[in-house]
Amino acid sequence: MIEIRTPRLLLRRWHDDDLAPMADIDADPRVMRWIDDGSVHDPEHTAKAIERWEEEWDEEGFGLFAVELLASGELAGCTGLSVPEFLPQALPAVAISWRFGPQFWGQGYASEAAHATLEFALQDRGLDRVISINQVGDVASENIARKLGMELELKAAHPVYGWPLRVHTIDLTEFQA
Ligand SMILES: CC(C)(COP(=O)(O)OP(=O)(O)OC[C@H]1O[C@@H](n2cnc3c(N)ncnc32)[C@H](O)[C@@H]1OP(=O)(O)O)[C@@H](O)C(=O)NCCC(=O)NCCS
């Protein structure tokens, strides 16, 4: 069972009772503003997504972690790794992504989880490179990428929606764990 503890967070695989809090996060327009077409997800969509992330864990040995606050046991959101199939020009690659409930923003949790995820990518999965993909305007995500030491590699357009995208990358052999 893969679990990572940081000073304030537990990164772990998904439990059945994560569905309700994750569905609340996915139902919030502030959260979904910069994801896909910007529309909120219904609980069925969230349930399918968690199912898919769990399958990725089984098949790839990496996936999206459920991120829990150690102090309270609350599910704050998710962070983890996936293959960004939707953007063929960035492949082959493994991408890091993050999504937290608004009540958990502005406290450094997303950066703490992302840092631990890059350590996991390097030390546990032997990956030497990870990318992050964000829409232009998603300043909070660009801020995390910059703090992680990622550098702009590619400007692209979303193949379905046409939004301008930015792809940042990090060479993990130079990552300061
Ligand atoms: C993207 C997202 C995860 C960013 O969350 P966030 O809370 O802003 O990110 P961070 O964890 O970096 O925290 C930011 C701020 O917390 C503050 N902070 C407070 N306490 C802190 C602590 N103990 N340690 C570090 N930072 C702390 C810092 O000031 C930091 O801001 P700074 O980097 O400008 O100094 C969040 O906006 C989100 O979930 N958005 C919706 C989903 C989404 O769009 N995802 C991206 C598409 S995949």
TrEMBL record:
Q: Gene3D superfamilies under this entry?
A: 3.40.630.30
What's the protein here called? N-acetyltransferase domain-containing protein
Does the keyword section mention Thylakoid? no
- Tell me which Pfam families the record gives: Acetyltransf_3 (PF13302)
Which segments constitute the N-acetyltransferase domain?
Answer: 9-166
Q: Which UniProt keywords apply?
A: Plasmid
